[in-house]
Design goal:
By secondary structure, the chain is mostly helical. The chain has helices at residues 12-15, 19-33, 47-60. Helix content is 44%, strand content 0%.
């Protein structure tokens, strides 16, 4: 896999999780992918790779929370 994100996020089992569990997983993923989480074990994910994973999720997961949305463009 080029990008470190489990394929299980696309499984029917993931989609069938209770909303609270899915929300907790998405929140944690966002903490890591946004760079908010600074733990040493996540440093191997470059900013480019994090951005790519977020973009892939935006394009492929219908039910992502709004905080995964790109920031509004200012004119």
């Amino acid at each position: 896999m080029r990008y470190s994100c489990s394929y299980m996020i696309y499984s029917p089992l993931f989609d069938a999780l209770p909303a609270e569990a899915r929300d907790a997983i998405y929140r944690r993923m966002w903490e890591i992918l946004s760079g908010e989480e600074k733990a040493k074990k996540y440093r191997r994910l470059s900013a480019v790779d994090r951005a790519a994973i977020v973009e892939i999720l935006r394009d492929t997961k219908q039910d992502l929370p709004s905080y995964f949305s790109p920031p509004a463009r200012q004119n």
